[in-house]
Amino acid sequence: MMTWNRSLTLATPFTLSFILITVFSFGQAAQAQESKISWPQFRGPDANPVSKQQDLPDEWSKSKNIEWSTSLDGRGWSSPIVVGDKVFVTSAVIDGESKPPQVGTDYSNDYVRELSQQGLSQEEIKQKVMERDFELPDQVTLKYFLVCLDLNTGKEQWKKQFFQGNPPGGRHRKNSFASETPTTDGKHVFVYIGNLGLFAFDLDGNKKWNTILDAKPVYMEFGTGSSPVVCNGNVIVVNDNEEESFIAAYHPETGKEVWKTKRSVGPNYPSAMPKSGWATPFIWKNELRTEIVTVQPGSAVSYDVDGNELWRLKGCTPAPAASSFAYNGQLYLNGGKGSPIFAIQPGAKGELTLKKTSTSSDQADASSANSDDEDSSEPKSKSSEEKQLDAVQPDNQEKESLITWQRPRAGTYIPTPVIYDGGVYVIQDNGILQRLDAETGNQSYKERLKDKGADFTTSPWAYNGKVFFHSEQGDTYVVEAGEEFKLVRVNQLGEFSMASPAIVGNRLLLRTQNAIYCIRNL
Questions:
Q1: Angstrom distance (rounded) from CA 366 to CA 252
Q2: What global pTM score does this model have?
Q3: How many of the other CB atoms lie within 10 Å of CB of 522?
Q4: Would you tell me how many other CB atoms lie within 10 Å of the CB of residue 209?
């Protein structure tokens, strides 16, 4: 069902002389194609969702500043993307009952402890956890859809089914069967489902091709989540799994494999730790080259546009989900929950190393992080396996100097930080927010947005001097940008949410469990 409050259509006539059309037609066609891509991928064109648009809304509710809302069948944590006046989003519809989504990132740990206290065996615990929290391939039948909505009205333009049957892999109820955000080159919409394959549609909904990819086992059937990106004209996917991890490029017109590179966690990676990952790659176009930056269990690896490894860095989480991005020519690498955030300059090659000592401010911030988070889900001490992941060998000063700064334990589990007006805003899944200086990594403040009842999966975004943090409970916490913490307001929609939004002109597109809302100053 779609509800509509108001729409605004702008028509801008534009004419050119015959001579200009003749001389510049090809270049202008390319520019027009590029300019109509408003929000091409997960977290937007720069993978850092910030807008300079002055008329974007910072206050809304179900009865205020909602231009339109459109219900969506099924479930999906994928974000909307936008080309011109078309909004694209994916969804998976399960035949029959589906296990409800889970709030928070405890997953099944509390339930395991509860069952252990009852004296159940490991096999009995596993069975009960699987029954309560997982949907396995032989238990569900589903249909996958790509849906196109009109940006101005929210009306459904077309809806295409691209798969029906048992899913090739399972999912934890925290995940969805459609968590990967599509991407576009302006002519096609590319849909990637990690254990299913890659699909291409034109903007009118005509299926152009699909490339079937072998299903690989994901750690404990948690499901998939790494979104595709476009680089050098090709579609790039990363698949980190328990059997045969890889990164690959596919031709946009045919779906044929252009190159494929095997990924390895390395010989010193603990065998008992997971090898699966959920982080979306980042295309870093810096002053020296274009890189495909990825985070896999235990380390970060960057590739050139042909899939050749450029550099790698140890010290990342064994369960990567959040992404990395760039700001002012520098890479901000998210090592994941319990691991650092790194600021890295262009030009790295080989194995990067961490500095053996921390600054006094690093040590002070790390101490305060442990002292004021008594109920934080962050670990207070590291296991021997985690210490092994962090171990690095000293190397030459040149490689060390490429790491401008590193902030211990600042990495995030699922929400990716955002950089706005020189500040790195880092929200943990439990609602602890800290602001870091983008140039130095120094901490400006560290605050909890709400004592209880606020869990965060959606990545934050920023505009008009404010930073926005949207909780799973459907509340958006609006914080004034700057070195001092100031909560401006809380906008309430009251619907479970996990998807990150899209910002298009003066519109904010926010997906909840059951609908997409177009939010605009009305």
A1: 45
A2: 0.87
A3: 12
A4: 16
